[in-house]
Amino acid sequence: MKLNIEQSKLAEILETAYLAISSKPTDPILGNILLIANEDGIVSATGTNLNLTIHTTTTANVETSGQVALPAKLLTDTINNVRGEITLEVENQACIITHNSGKCRLIGGKPDEFPTLPKGENPIEVNLSAKKLQAALEGTLYCTNGDETKLVLTGVNFKIDTNKWQAASTNGHKLALVTGILDSEYSDPIDFTVPGKSLSELNKILSQSADTSVCNILLSNKTIEFSLPNTKVISRLLEGEYPKINSLIPRTFEYEFTLERKGFESALKRVSYLAERKQKVVKILWELEATQATLYTEATDIGDAVDSVLMKPATSHSENISIGLNIDYLLEGLKHISTDEIVVRCNKPTQPVIICPMGGLLNQLYLVMPVEIKQGFENKSTPSKTTTAEKTPEALETTETTVVAELEEAINNTQTSQTESNGETSEVETSTAEAKASNKSKPSSRTRAKKEAASV
């Protein structure tokens, strides 16, 4: 094999293929990138870790066709540090790279040992705007579960029903959902879950694609292929049924508030410094007459903080409502919303809170579970005009038990009921059942919190 190619072209396809290379490959050949040059002037680079494969192409002046498997990191670092036109000449398993100031020789593996691209049979084809797919990934990936004992929750679940599609993810405490409309209709519902790690690498590629690019998706039984101009991303699918999270999202809301996103985010960051390190809880009092949201935090050994932001309420209620929320979860959700304004919807202080962007490319929502705060917080809170120095420590007092994991329990119940109806027990469901059995002997966090509040 012999070819001449611009450094920028070769560096681009190598960096893209390198996204699929594992830092600790299970087989030495998986630490290589496969380069193939065809007589028609097409050069491809392929990287894989067996779960994810990335294949990308470019053009070059090919004198002799051929293929070679070269160490991925060494090859990428070498090409990134040269400039101008490069000549690659391969003899056996050695590749001589000649550039404008010198040359080097790399020893690679056997290209015939490199895994072939996986191909699915009778794939279902779906076409989706690359920018919409990227927006869906940006709006869901941050809610995937990092705990691989619940493997199906480490991915993003996609559903297609006629011409409607959605992408969803959850880790039990927070949930993200993005929906949109397709140009084509499908007679049968489609449901599949893609590993979050694969989609993270795909998202990097999508961020570099043109605004008008279309992603051609080929869905098979065990694999999925995302095809973009000059690049293919192939991933294995996650097995197992994803929880029916749509049933966990409230359909009606008693309260609705519109806020300026950056102002709300800034206020959260300011009060976060005075929040307990372990709990990171902010108590938000939604004041309807004052049309503002007042934020309270306290750290026992440091102090407390109060801040406020303007908001527009849309509710028939006249009573204020206070909700405790995890600051990190709130900031994470706001970080993945790109619009200037957001809408916060809620019901009772112990029920899920929904945050949606005002507008945007797709319909998007973020669900976060509240933190249980002491009953009567609204009455004990001083008006927002009171300064922090005038506030008493009791005004910020909350119960020690904070996290209310109703969403996680609902997901576990969904998985358990599926197991009972199917007469089967998966690895994820078994771990869920064991966890529930171990917790029967001790009171729930909500029960303990109520007892403590009653005693106070």
TrEMBL record:
Residues 128-244 form the DNA polymerase III beta sliding clamp central domain. InterPro entries: DNA_clamp_sf, DNA_polIII_beta, DNA_polIII_beta_C, DNA_polIII_beta_cen, DNA_polIII_beta_N. It is found in: Cytoplasm. The keyword Ribonucleoprotein does not apply. Residues 1-118 form the DNA polymerase III beta sliding clamp N-terminal domain. Keywords: Cytoplasm, DNA replication, DNA-binding, DNA-directed DNA polymerase, Nucleotidyltransferase, Plasmid, Transferase. Residues 381-397, 424-438 have a biased composition (Low complexity). GO terms for biological process: DNA strand elongation involved in DNA replication. Residues 411-423 have a biased composition (Polar residues). The keyword DNA-binding applies. GO terms for molecular function: 3'-5' exonuclease activity; DNA binding; DNA-directed DNA polymerase activity. Its main location: cytoplasm. Residues 378-397, 409-456 are annotated as: Disordered. Residues 247-358 form the DNA polymerase III beta sliding clamp C-terminal domain. Pfam families: DNA_pol3_beta, DNA_pol3_beta_2, DNA_pol3_beta_3. One of its GO terms (cellular component) is cytoplasm. NCBIfam families: dnan. Belongs to the beta sliding clamp family. This is DNA polymerase III beta subunit. It comes from Tolypothrix tenuis PCC 7101. The lineage of its organism: Bacteria, Bacillati, Cyanobacteriota, Cyanophyceae, Nostocales.
